[in-house]
Write a structure and sequence with these properties.
152 residues; alpha+beta; four-stranded mixed β-sheet; 1 helix; 14% helix
């Protein structure tokens, strides 16, 4: 069930520690969009922006994220699409369909990075998406950043 139907977008240089419900934070510098789950459970949803992950469209007034957001690892298992700043409920997926989607994502990511000549694609998490990291962190997978992403 979707509780936050309308999302306010905010372009930010740093991600706040506390996410406001109904706000989609977009960091171009971090190539990431992050928001509190639209069902209201409070889960932190991180969507990396990359050719093999999510694509963001900004039309000057609203934002859209594609593909859909499936929070399969959250207790709520919410599934929705953000189109023109509206969160729209999507159909639930079975465990089998989730596994098929994750497999498809891993194959697509592997093909993309092979074609680009990158022998070392980013780490994948269990859902086939790029391993999620906290964009507020001072280190990512043990690699210390020259400047903290949070602007601290």
């Amino acid at each position: 069930m979707i509780r936050h139907h309308r999302l306010e977008h905010r372009f930010v240089t740093s991600i706040p520690r506390q996410l406001e419900p109904g706000v989609l934070y977009i960091s171009i510098e971090c190539a990431t969009a992050i928001h509190a789950c639209c069902c209201g459970c409070g889960g932190e949803v991180v969507t990396p922006l990359a050719p093999t992950d999510w694509q963001l469209t900004f039309d000057g007034e609203t934002v859209s994220l594609w593909p859909s957001i499936g929070n399969w690892n959250f207790p709520c298992r919410s599934h929705y699409v953000i189109e023109r700043s509206e969160a729209m409920q999507a159909l639930p997926w079975s465990d089998r369909r989730i596994a098929q989607g994750r497999f498809r994502d891993r194959i697509a990511k592997s093909r993309y990075y092979e074609a680009s000549g990158n022998a070392n694609p980013p780490e994948l998490n269990g859902d086939g998406k790029t391993a999620q990291w906290d964009p507020r962190a001072k280190a990512v997978d043990g690699i210390h950043l020259k400047k903290p992403l949070s602007g601290e």
